[in-house]
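To make this tangible, we now present a fold written out as tokens:
***
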Amino acid sequence: MRDRPQSEPGSQQAIRSANGVRYGTTLVQAIVVALMLAQLGFSQTLFDVRNPKNQKWPEADANRVYMSTARVIAAEFKLPQPIYAHFTLILGADENSVDIDARELRLKKWDTYFYAEGVLRLGFDQVMSSEAKMRLARRAVAESKATVTVDQARTASTPSPPSYPSPWPPSPLHGWAPYSRH
């Protein structure tokens, strides 16, 4: 096997340049991963939590349900990527409820299904802008005014088509009259 000649400054420069590009790409990837891990490290959960009574709750399960709910909403509304709801989970509340305006999910105690429903409601609310919600509300009201009940349809006066005498002789009830044999 032949050794490369050391006198080729162009090839060594190309190798150093390629290594520099690889190093730069790797460095950028490492920085991105570090930032993502730092963001997750600052917050153990993907949402805020207030737990004044220090109730036990499955944090890992809550995070999985949260992520799954975001994916389900994105799939249902054909969104290109999930939209993660911003809210505060309050454990030990007086009742199970969702306050859309305050962006709070209140649970008396941990319940996976109430939690999932609350995350779904909060996520759905945040998918649409206020303008889009008003546009849908106006459309629903306009559509409700455009519909009629069956009773209204029965009593509506619609003109019946004019009646003209048939140019054909009357026929028997079941099928054509037989040809007469002369």
Notes: The chain is about 50% helix and 10% strand.
